[in-house]
Every structure is written in structure tokens, then in C-alpha cells.
Specification:
With about 200 residues, the chain is an all-alpha fold. Helices cover about 75% and strands about 0% of the residues.
Length: about 200
């Protein structure tokens, strides 16, 4: 009979994701990863192939926990018009920055800088998350029915860029004034697409 695992895999993955989110792939040593996950080296190698496989699983976890939640919010007509949902998302991020400091920023943004240029499976996962967000912004823009497809796609990409910028600036400790300026630019993009 097999021995039960000595750790909760879900909890361990959340802790691994937190470490990668904070310091990046290269800076997270195996020793730090084991300490963060609160598991032994033996348990680690029974459950995972290597650090890279844990990193890929962390990206999947972020996709299912955070990106899926964001996509769901942007697609939820019960949260208002497409414009209201987009501005609501930006307001939530800005409020978190002002309230908590949000010095972690966005794991996706951090990982895009950290690993995307290296190609392979990590790059594919990161690009898929970017496209999910872009499509969610696109859908929210088109839900209001006032934009053509090309204009809505361009607007969605501009909004996505502003979203990533806001998240990166949050990690850098941006001021509340900068967050509000970012939101005003998104309002302008949404206004432009309606006229």
C-alpha cells in the first residue's frame, strides 16, 4: 500500500506560485522552493519532476485561479455594461494598490518579463493567458454594441496594455494619482470607441 503524501499538493502549489510570483524563476532556488512549499526534497521529487515542472504548474494555477476569475468578471453582464466591467476591474486593481500596496503586481506580467522570451512551453502558456485577457476585454468592448470588430480589437489591446502597465506600476509602488491617470486613459479609449 502506497504511503499518503506528506503535504497538501494544492497548498504547496499556492506557495510555489507565490515564490515564483515574488522573485521569478531564476531567482527561486530549489532550496527556497522546498522551504516555501514546506516539503522535503524526497517528497518534492516524488510529486514533481523538477523546478521547471513546478513553474509550469504554477502558471497553470495562476491561469485557473486569477486569469479565469478576471475573464469571468469581464464577461459577467450582471456586473454592468462592458464599459462598467472594464472600469470596475481597473478600479479594483487601483484600490488594491492604494489599500495594500500590491507590491507583487501580476504574476503573468512578471512571468512575461522573466520567461516568455525563452520560448517553449512557458512561453506558450503565457501567450495563451495574454490572449484570454485580450479576448475578454474585446468581448466587453463589443458587448456595448457600438464598435466595429477592428476598432474593438484595437481598443481591447490598448486596454490590455494599460492593465499590464497598471499592474507593473503597482509592483513598483505607484502613487494613487498615477493609478487614476491610467483609469482616465482607459475611460478615454472607451469613450473614443463609442463616438
Amino acid at each position: 500500500m502506497a504511503r499518503p503524501r506528506e503535504f497538501d499538493p494544492e497548498e504547496a502549489m499556492d506557495k510555489a506560485m507565490g515564490l515564483f510570483w515574488d522573485v521569478g524563476y531564476e531567482e527561486a532556488s530549489l532550496t527556497e522552493l522546498l522551504a516555501a512549499m514546506e516539503i522535503t526534497k524526497g517528497s518534492f521529487y516524488k510529486a514533481f519532476q523538477d523546478k521547471h515542472s513546478v513553474y509550469l504548474a504554477s502558471l497553470d494555477r495562476y491561469n485557473s485561479k486569477v486569469i479565469s476569475g478576471t475573464v469571468s468578471y469581464l464577461g459577467d453582464s450582471g456586473q454592468g455594461t462592458g464599459r462598467e466591467r472594464i472600469l470596475g476591474l481597473f478600479a479594483m486593481v487601483a484600490d488594491a494598490v492604494k489599500r495594500d500596496g500590491d507590491r507583487l503586481g501580476c504574476f503573468l506580467c512578471n512571468a512575461l518579463i522573466d520567461k516568455a522570451a525563452e520560448g517553449g512551453e512557458a512561453e506558450s502558456k503565457l501567450q495563451a493567458m495574454v490572449h484570454r485577457l485580450e479576448n475578454a476585454f474585446f468581448q466587453a468592448v463589443t458587448d456595448d454594441g457600438s464598435a466595429g470588430e477592428k476598432e474593438a480589437r484595437e481598443t481591447a489591446r490598448g486596454i490590455l496594455s494599460a492593465y499590464f502597465g497598471l499592474r507593473v506600476l503597482g509592483r513598483a509602488g505607484l502613487s494613487g494619482e498615477m493609478a487614476m491617470d491610467c483609469i482616465r486613459q482607459v475611460e478615454w479609449l472607451l469613450y473614443r470607441v463609442k463616438t
